[in-house]
Specification:
- This protein is an alpha/beta fold.
- It has two domains: 244 residues, Amidase signature (AS) domain (Amidase signature (AS) enzymes), CATH 3.90.1300.10; 74 residues, no CATH class.
- Helix content is 35%, strand content 11%.
- It contains ten helices and eight strands.
- The chain has a six-stranded mixed beta sheet, with helices on both faces. The chain has a two-stranded parallel sheet with strand order 7-8.
């Protein structure tokens, strides 16, 4: 298909019949074949399975066209379980493991009409920040093959940045969605803990892990979050949340919107170009009517220390299930 590479554009084109789910799937698979040899975003791809799913959606277009991800090709991080599809967490320990069930997040994507193309590379057991620690090879940044895409969800971020898919799932314990999204120039959202079920996620640090979307734009992240969020009784930490999410439509105006900026987190070491882009973004928001306010997060200085105490202890316990 031609036009914007966004969830909304693809979904509307397939739902209207101006293109088909099969055509979109074929285009995404062609893009993977073209670009991924030098990037390494994907661990595994199953074209036959994806095309079969897309063909089924096309046959049922009149019935299913209302779905928010109808016909949209997506990718799943390799530490999130997918039924009858290899899930290794980029580790030799799980080589050949094929889950008999889908993670809750995968169930929700499928129910929303998505077409799963494959699994994306990550640091082994999601423990890393560069996607260099996969047992199956490194992932490279689509913008510069000599640079890292970040991690541990580097494969998902790279797949979206290279326009292989408009949406990929990642997991975030201490930055593993947000950091690779930033390094690849895309949007990554770590939802509030408990808003997205962890059922079917191979655990790193259970009290910190969250599944979330990586997309090419903020609107797509909102659409994906609305699909993923919700209570799941199979996850004891899943939150019962009665309020609806904010919605995926961009506001008509930013007049009066108050945006907090934690200046204390902007420390030495930030490259001048990054800081300039950040300040330009704030100025643009202010120019659209938003109010920029400095906020303080007095406990933030304890964050890294607390993270390493919790994450390492929980990771040790969780990894013991593989080798006793």
């Amino acid at each position: 298909m031609t036009g914007p590479f966004t969830i909304k554009a693809i979904r509307n084109a397939v739902a209207s019949g101006s293109t088909s789910a099969v055509e979109c799937c074929e285009a995404a698979l062609a893009r993977i074949r073209e670009a991924d040899g030098s990037i390494g975003a994907f661990r595994t791809v199953d074209p036959a399975r994806a095309l079969s799913r897309a063909a089924d959606l096309d046959r049922r277009r009149q019935e299913l066209a209302h779905l928010p991800l109808f016909g949209v090709p997506v990718a799943i991080k390799d530490n999130i379980c997918t039924r009858d599809f290899p899930t290794t967490a980029a580790s030799r320990i799980l080589e050949g493991y094929v889950p008999p069930y889908d993670a809750a997040a995968v169930e929700r994507l499928t129910a929303a009409g998505a077409v799963i193309l494959g699994k994306t590379n990550c640091d082994e057991f999601a423990m890393g920040s560069s996607t260099e620690n996969s047992a199956y090879g490194v992932t490279r940044n689509p913008w510069d093959r000599e640079r890292t895409p970040g991690g541990s969800s580097g494969g998902s971020a790279a797949a979206v940045a290279a326009q292989m898919v408009p949406l990929a799932l990642g997991s975030d314990t201490g930055g593993s969605i947000r950091q690779p999204a930033a390094l690849c120039g895309v949007v990554g959202l770590k939802p509030t803990y408990g808003r997205v079920s962890r059922y079917g996620l191979l655990a790193f640090a259970s009290s910190l892990d969250q599944i979330g979307p990586i997309t090419g734009c903020v609107e797509d992240a909102a659409v994906a979050f609305e699909v993923l969020a919700g209570h799941d009784p199979r996850d004891a930490t899943s939150v019962v949340y009665d309020e609806t999410t904010a919605g995926a439509q961009a506001p008509e105006s930013l007049d009066g919107l108050r945006i907090g900026v934690p200046r204390s987190l902007i420390r030495e070491g930030v490259e001048p170009g990054v800081l300039e882009a950040f300040e330009r973004a704030l100025a643009a928001l202010e120019g659209c009517g938003a109010r920029i306010s400095t906020v303080e997060l007095p406990h933030s200085r304890y964050g890294i220390a607390a993270y390493y105490l919790i994450a390492t202890a929980e990771a040790s316990a969780n990894l013991a299930r593989y080798d006793g």
